[in-house]
Inverse folding.
């Protein structure tokens, strides 16, 4: 039986990562970065509205956060890999060629947070709450962006013979024939098979996204703690991914600088999770200008503001949790005060059948009175008729009586 890698094929790299549309290059790396940004804004906006935030706030803040994040990511990359752009035979201007890849996630998150803070200050939105809403969306955007590294044949690890190893192809410029691993087209020749660290990080990011959504749904996390969990979760995975990489990088004491950064950021994020306010902001606290926000490093002020918000939300939650089968005291009092009124009401109800029964009797009495009146009138009329007839007959009787002897 042959080795496993003779049965399962390696993962092939894309033959190219750039397509020319006339004079314009269409870069897969840029497309996936843009797609990730769109997904992050769309999903983050939905999560913000579900928490009670004002629609459109995430897009407004993103107008500050995205440019800051892109610039910050490039600054971090150039600062930690400066030897690629400065020195003998190097071209410093290439440090500005962001479309060729090279965005340090730590710089992107740090500077992006600064841009978001500026936007939140302008629109009077609480930054920690907004960070919690967009945290899973931002990490999903990072996972999507890693597909750009796949097309650029970058962010890979050491050589391996694992069945899921990634094939790295040799690429050349189609016009000049010069070797161009970033922008060229593959000849099909495999240079080496390496650890697909971009894929490891992509899968890890998706798993952390799922964990963040489930934790937020279960525990109602707020006050920036979910964003801190996102940072901690990503840092934890990135630390181990860095141990598998072999590309050029700055080292400190023989350890890649990104490993140091991952460890320090992880510790700082977990400290924030432990010290920040528990619970979640109320929808009223998410409205623009609802209350002045302390600075992010003012932990005591942040805890006080969070406690005040939780205390304000407590009466509403207690009202909703009242047992509907048990009458409130006010309802009992109203019921007791209403009892004396039941006797008059019952008397009225009892009088109604009597009144209904009396109505036919009254109608009968009225009918008999009418009949008696009619009889009297007819009797009077008969008496009057008899009197008139008698008065007419009297002379005749007198005449007949006079004729008799």
């Amino acid at each position: 039986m042959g080795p496993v890698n003779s049965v399962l094929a390696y993962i092939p790299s894309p033959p190219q990562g750039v397509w020319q549309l006339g004079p314009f290059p269409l870069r897969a790396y840029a497309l996936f970065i843009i797609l990730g940004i769109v997904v992050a804004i769309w999903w983050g906006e939905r999560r913000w509205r579900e928490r009670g935030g004002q629609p459109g706030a995430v897009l407004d803040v993103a107008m500050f956060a995205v440019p800051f994040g892109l610039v910050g990511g490039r600054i971090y990359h150039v600062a930690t890999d400066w030897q690629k752009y400065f020195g003998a035979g190097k071209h410093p201007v290439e440090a500005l060629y962001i479309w060729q890849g090279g965005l340090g996630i730590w710089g992107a998150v740090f500077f992006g947070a600064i841009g978001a803070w500026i936007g939140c200050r302008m629109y009077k939105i609480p930054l920690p709450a907004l960070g919690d809403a967009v945290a899973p969306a931002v990490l999903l955007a990072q996972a999507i962006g890693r597909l750009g590294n796949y097309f650029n044949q970058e962010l890979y690890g050491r050589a391996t013979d694992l069945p899921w190893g990634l094939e790295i192809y040799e690429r050349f410029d189609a016009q000049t024939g010069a070797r161009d691993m970033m922008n060229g087209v593959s000849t099909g020749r495999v240079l080496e098979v390496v650890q697909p660290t971009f894929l490891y990080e992509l899968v890890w990011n998706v798993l952390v996204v799922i964990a963040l959504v489930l934790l937020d749904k279960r525990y109602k996390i707020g006050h920036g703690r979910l964003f801190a969990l996102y940072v901690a979760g990503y840092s934890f995975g990135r630390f181990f991914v860095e141990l598998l990489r072999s590309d050029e990088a700055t080292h400190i004491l023989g350890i890649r600088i990104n490993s140091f950064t991952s460890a320090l950021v992880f510790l700082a994020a977990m400290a924030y999770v432990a010290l920040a306010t528990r619970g979640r902001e109320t929808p009223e606290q998410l409205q623009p200008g609802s209350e002045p926000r302390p600075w992010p490093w003012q932990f005591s002020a942040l805890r006080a503001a969070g406690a005040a918000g939780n205390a304000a939300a407590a009466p509403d939650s207690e009202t909703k949790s009242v047992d509907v089968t048990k009458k409130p005291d006010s309802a009992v009092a109203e019921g007791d005060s209403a009892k004396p009124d039941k006797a008059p009401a019952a008397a009225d109800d009892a009088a109604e059948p009597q009144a209904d029964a009396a109505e036919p009797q009254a109608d009968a009495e009225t009918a008999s009175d009418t009949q008696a009146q009619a009889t009297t009138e007819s009797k009077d009329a008969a008496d009057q008729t008899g009197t008139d007839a008698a008065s007419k007959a009297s002379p005749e009787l007198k005449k007949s009586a006079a004729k008799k002897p």
